[in-house]
Every structure is written in C-alpha cells, then in structure tokens.
Amino acid sequence: MEKPRPFQIKSRLHVLRAEKDLTQEELGREVGVTRATIIAIEKGNYNPSLELAFKLARFFDKRIDEIFSTEEAT
Amino acid sequence: MKAINRIVVYYFVIALPLLAAAWVIFPAFTRTEKAVGSAFFEWGNAATGYLFSLWVVTALYVAVAVIVSPRFREHLLKLIARIKERDEREAMIVGRASRNVFLLNVALIVCLLIFNLVTVHVSRLPEGQTIAGKERNLFIGLNLSPVEGTACASPGPEGSGGQTLFDYHFPLSVSGVLYLMMIVNLGAFSYYARRLERG
Fold it and tell me: Inter-chain contact A46–B90, Cβ cutoff 8 Å?
C-alpha cells in the first residue's frame, strides 16, 4: 500500500503577527509555546496540534481556516 | 547548585568521547618505541587516568541526580539535545528522537550479542595431518553462556599443533560494551533531536 502523502499546512501566521506588531517570542508567550515553535510553524516545518491551532485562532480572533490552509505535499 | 549541575553535566557528556580517544592514544603510544623516554606520553597517560577518575565521580553524581531530580533531567536534556520539552513541538521532538534511539539500540544490542556469541578460528593443519588433501581448518563456534564461568570448552583447534591463521573472539570487555552503548545512546539522541529541531 502506497504511503499517503503528508499534508502540508500553510499558515498566514507571519502576516497576522505583523498586523499586530508582535515578535515571534511575544506571540509564543501568548499562546504558550517557544519562539522556535512559532518559527517552525511559519516556515511550514511544523504542523501545530489542534489545541495550539485553537489557541492561535482565539488569540487572533479568526477561524482556524483563516489562519491555516492545507495542500497535499508534492 | 545550578552552576554545579551545569558543570557536572558538561564534563560528563563532553569528556566521554575525549577520554575514550585519549585512553586509546596515550597507552597505545607509551607501549611503542617512540614513547620511550617521552615525558609527553607519560604525562598524557597519567592525566588521562586522573581525568577518568573525575569522570567516574561525575558519572555517579549524574546517575543519582537523573533519578531523583527532575530539574537535573532538564539540564541533561538541554545539553544533549538543546531542547527542554517546554512545549508540544519539543515534546514531539524528544519523543521521536527517543523512538529512533530505541530502534538503534535494539539493532546495536543484537549485533553486539551476535558478535559476542560467534568465534571464528582458521588454522593450518600440522604437516602430515591433512584431511582429504585439505590443509586448512575453519572452526566457527556459537557459545551462549549467560553466567560467567559456565562457558563450555570449545572443541576447537587448541592443542592441535597447527598454525593459527586467523582468530576472532569478541574483542570488547563488559566495560567497553557499556561505554560504547553510552556513547552511542547520547550521541544518537543528540543527533536525532537536533536534526528534528532544525526541521
């Protein structure tokens, strides 16, 4: 059975963060993660958990799908 | 206390591979003609001994501290993997690195066990004792002795008077195996964690 292609999650986190004039560290502190995790999410190297996605959505007052979008990785 | 823990952890981890290298280099050289009268190699040999004694003390401290102190475990993790399990991503990295190290350990232990069980001996038979025209004798032994001193005597070529061409017995002592596994565990965990951390 062929291994399913991983989902690539793209985020608009860097845009939303810039709109609120926040550093990565400040955003991380707000949602309870490290700066390295915020960097990894923005670069697409890490897919956040559901809990973290909800925290980010609540913080930016957006829906999850307004922050994150998916595409099948090529 | 925090500074002491940091120093102990640094010395324990960094000294491991350096002492192994020094332990091989200096005693090996002091046995050669180059080292006769060489103060440098004699000094190196002595210094390695003192540094190793200090490492044994730190290793004992680390072993106890890892069990009793959660904060010490964080120090050790931070030095080896540069992460602290502060959030979900770091916890995931530690989990994946641990999984990879576990699998590597299983492979390593199986390999070490097989190399330990097997003995190989190739000898040339004495003059006039050839068998069906064959001059050489190949002996492959499998010997599993869980308790020291209970190994069966190998029905091998000893005493046959032949010339040994090749002889293999597992070369590492128990200390050597444990030292090797410690270095592999720490090194592999550090490698996998840092690779996952970089993405």
Answer: no
DSSP B1-57: -HHHHHHHHHHHHHHHHHHHHHHHHHHHHHTSGGGTT-HHHHHHHHHHHHHHHHHHH
CB A44, CB A8: distance < 8 Å:
yes
Residues in chain B closer than 8 A to A47 (CB atoms)? none
B74 lies within 8 A of chain A by CB: no
Q: 């949602």: which residue's tokens?
A: A31
Residue B156 main-chain phi, psi, to 5 deg: -100, -160
Distance CA A22, CA B157 (A): 77
Q: Half-sphere exposure of residue B68, counting CA atoms within 13 Å on the CB side?
A: 6
Chain A contact present for B33, CB below 8 A: no
DSSP single-letter state for residue A24: H
State pLDDT tens for residues A34-58. Answer: 999 999 999 988 999 999 999 999 9
- What ipTM did this prediction achieve? 0.81
Tokens of B3: 């500074």
Task: Please tell me whether the overall predicted TM-score, pTM, comes out greater than 0.80 for this model.
Answer: no
Give B198 to chain A, closest Cα distance, Å.
Answer: 9
